[in-house]
Design goal:
Elements: E1 19-21, E2 27-29, H1 36-40, H2 44-66, E3 71-77, H3 80-83, H4 97-108, E4 115-117, H5 122-127, H6 141-158, H7 166-172, E5 176-177, E6 183-185, H8 190-194, E7 200-202, E8 205-206, H9 208-211, E9 218-223, E10 233-237, E11 243-251, H10 264-271, E12 272-279, H11 285-291, E13 295-301
Parallel strand pairs: 3-4, 3-13, 11-12, 11-13
Antiparallel strand pairs: 1-2, 5-8, 6-7, 9-10, 10-12
Helix pairs in contact: 2-4, 6-7
Length: 311
């Protein structure tokens, strides 16, 4: 496909107010149904009350899963505008008060071994603008890789008792750029901004140690509801996986269905012997009891922090 560049005024906002153009061609979620801009303007008292509810929910999850002998990791993925404040408009920076207070609460917890701070992840910070795609609100392959590295490092530090070589896998895991190849990619913000598809060039990357395992992955379950994402369930088995564990994830579009390196599920279905992804904000303890995993991960994103799940 051929493409031609255009210059668009900085801070141009889409007709529906949902997307805004920042510096260097990065598009950010702005208003619309998520109304991200209002989250950055939320007052301290309101945000602290909500953050406290999240912290209490995390503790309840930890207790419920520990009682079942299951390790638990909670992660909140920050907004692109939080990670890249130098490219975003002022009203989308520096961090929502919701996430700020959650990070402070978790840092003060004694101990909060279950909370994996993505916002404070050295890899995530160091890679900067490489962790998000320009025309999409989601991660780049590099961003998903950084989160997987952070997860493996967290498991090495906090869950040494699990019978899995987390440290060895972390040392061997890597990504390489496919030289001489340039592709164009669209994204979920690409059509919103101007009403026409927009693309960004990128060099494909691959994880050689994991690509060799792709043929051994079997899709056991694929439930995708019509007209929405909530209720999606994907189950993969991989007898050649380096981590001989069952993993259950309750998350959203940052995990997705695992079809490409942009999605955290792609990495999980390669790394874990059995991987279950449920696209929902709540924890289904009946499902957990039926699967009996060694590890449960709960994941949300900064733009959803104003709504606290019940479980």
């Amino acid at each position: 496909m051929e493409a031609s560049p255009l210059l668009v005024p900085l801070w141009h906002c889409s007709a529906d107010g949902s997307a805004l153009l920042g510096r260097d061609g990065f598009i950010f979620v702005y208003g619309g149904s998520n109304d991200v801009v209002s989250l950055y303007a939320t007052g301290d008292d309101e945000a602290q009350a909500v953050a406290t509810s999240w912290s209490e929910l995390f503790a309840q999850r930890a207790a419920a899963l520990a009682g079942r002998g299951i390790a638990y990791v909670q992660m909140v993925i920050p907004e692109k505008s939080t990670v890249l404040p130098e490219l975003a408009p002022r009203e989308l920076t520096p961090i929502t008060t919701f996430l700020k207070f959650i990070e402070e609460d978790m840092a003060a917890a004694d101990p909060a071994r279950y909370y994996l701070s993505i916002a404070a992840s050295p890899d995530f910070k160091t890679r900067g603008r490489d962790v998000f795609r320009k025309v999409d609100s989601h991660l780049s392959p590099d961003g998903a890789f950084c989160i997987i590295k952070s997860l493996l490092g967290h498991m090495v530090r906090e869950y040494k008792h699990l019978p899995a070589p987390f440290e060895t896998v972390l040392e061997q895991l890597g990504m390489t750029v496919q030289p001489g190849r340039i592709r164009l990619a669209g994204g979920d913000l690409a059509l919103r901004l101007l009403g026409v598809p927009l693309y960004e060039p990128y060099q494909p990357m691959e994880a050689p140690a994991l690509n060799a395992l792709t043929p051994s992955i079997v899709t056991q379950t694929s439930i995708i509801p019509e007209g929405g994402h909530i209720g999606t369930r994907m189950v993969y088995t991989n007898p050649q996986a380096p981590l001989p564990l069952k993993l259950v994830v309750f998350g959203n579009s940052f995990f997705e269905k695992g079809k490409s390196e942009y999605q955290i599920s792609w990495w999980c279905r390669h790394l874990f012997r059995e991987f279950h992804f449920l696209w929902q904000p709540e924890v289904d303890y009946a499902y957990v009891d039926s699967v009996q995993p060694e590890l449960v991960i709960c994941q949300t994103i900064e733009r959803f922090l104003n709504k606290v799940p019940t479980t």
